[in-house]
Write a structure and sequence with these properties.
Elements: H1 6-9, H2 14-23, H3 29-37, E1 41-46, H4 50-63, E2 69-74, H5 77-86, E3 88-92, E4 95-99, E5 103-105, E6 116-119, H6 126-131, E7 142-145, H7 152-159, E8 164-165, E9 167-178, E10 181-194, H8 200-212, E11 217-219, H9 223-244, H10 248-253, H11 255-274, H12 283-292, H13 301-307, H14 314-327, H15 333-342
Parallel strand pairs: 1-2, 1-6, 2-5, 3-10, 6-7, 7-8, 10-11
Antiparallel strand pairs: 3-4, 9-10
Helix pairs in contact: 2-3, 9-11, 9-13, 9-15, 14-15
Length: 347
């Protein structure tokens, strides 16, 4: 990997900043002028739950006190207050560390231009969270969504066509234990991103950025296949664990449960084929190998939300499959059954 100078990679010029200051609503003019004078590469992480807390925490740990990279957390409620007062505690295995972002706030408005936005909220907050950056996005802004799903990057492109929106996903078991405390479990996690329009220079920059922060990241040549590969992992597991209130360990130790989960995965492969997306023949076996690396008690965030009576991502993870299949007159009986169980009003 060639050496990358974060300072040189920042796209802010005084001329661009001067245009921005006249085109934006500026709640704090003196603070805004400080941003305009800065040449730091500015990263905002929105959604400080399991994924955002982990990725943001690793970035904050690496670049704390940096004169070249600035880390911003967008959080809310008790989580926001806990991070403001005590920092963010990141628990990984036997290691604990407390990290501090340069800025933690509940709104991006007034922050000035952002170079990289990492979207880590739940899928049902996509539009609201992305639109909150209306005053921060320029033609040079990179947006990397790490949602669970396969169509979210396009939704963001429709909202901000001027920005460069990458496709991305992450494999990880991580959760918000309590306000300001993130716990990552298991021995496996990796971030994947890609874009057919991203320059090699910017791709190399992102490679370097994540590598420096000790975040295993892969710049995918075929990111669409990777997204569907990940979807083939997360959607059936979320659907099955939620519908049956069962852990991944229990699935693996039961031939009956394992077979049923494989049927769900096979239905996604049928849909992908209809959409012209080719997945490797060993994808299902590979997914089960990944599952074997996870803690016995691991479940899915959708199951956790469902059992606690909170809003879930069922429409993005289960309903999407059912709706897309109907567009192709494709019968996916397993998904239809579980969707009707999870969302009874669809019957």
């Amino acid at each position: 990997m060639k050496n990358v100078d974060y300072n040189l990679q920042s796209r802010h010029s005084w001329h661009q900043h001067s245009l921005y200051i006249y085109q934006s609503i500026i709640p704090n003019k003196h603070k805004q002028i400080q941003y305009l004078m800065s040449n730091k590469f500015r990263i905002a992480v929105i959604g400080m739950g399991g994924v955002g807390g982990f990725v943001g925490g690793k970035l904050a740990a690496r670049f704390q006190g940096s004169d070249k990279v600035e880390i911003i957390f967008i959080a809310r409620g008790a989580n926001l207050e806990a991070i403001r007062v005590n920092g963010l505690k990141l628990v990984t295995g036997e290691t604990e560390m407390i990290v501090y972002p340069d800025i933690v706030t509940d709104t991006p408005q007034g922050l000035g231009p952002i170079d990289l936005i990492l979207c880590c909220t739940k899928t049902y907050h996509l539009e609201e969270s992305v639109r909150s950056f209306a005053h921060n996005i320029t033609a040079e802004t990179l947006i990397l969504p790490l949602f669970n799903g396969v169509d979210h990057a396009q939704k963001i492109r429709d909202i901000f066509p001027e920005a460069t929106v990458l496709d991305g996903c992450i494999y990880i078991v991580s959760k918000l234990l309590s306000p300001g405390v993130i716990k990552q479990s298991g021995n496996f996690y990796s971030l994947h991103f890609g874009s057919s329009t991203l320059s090699s220079e910017r791709s190399s920059f992102l490679d370097k950025l994540f590598s420096d922060a000790d975040i295993p990241a892969v710049n995918e040549k075929d990111i669409e296949q990777r997204l569907w590969n990940k979807f083939l992992f997360i959607s059936p597991i979320a659907t099955y664990t939620t519908a049956l209130n069962i852990s991944i360990g229990r699935i693996l130790e039961s031939p009956e449960h394992s077979s049923a989960l494989k049927e769900l995965m096979a239905e996604i492969i049928l849909l992908a084929q209809k959409k012209g997306i080719s997945l490797p023949a060993d994808t299902i076996a590979a997914n089960f190998e990944v599952m074997a690396k996870l803690p016995y008690e691991a479940t899915s965030s959708m199951q956790h939300d469902f059992t606690n009576g909170r809003q879930t991502e069922v429409e993005a993870l289960t309903g999407y499959i059912v709706r897309e299949a109907r567009q192709f007159d494709l019968s996916l009986k397993k998904y239809e059954t579980f969707y009707q169980q999870l969302v009874p009003e669809t019957v």
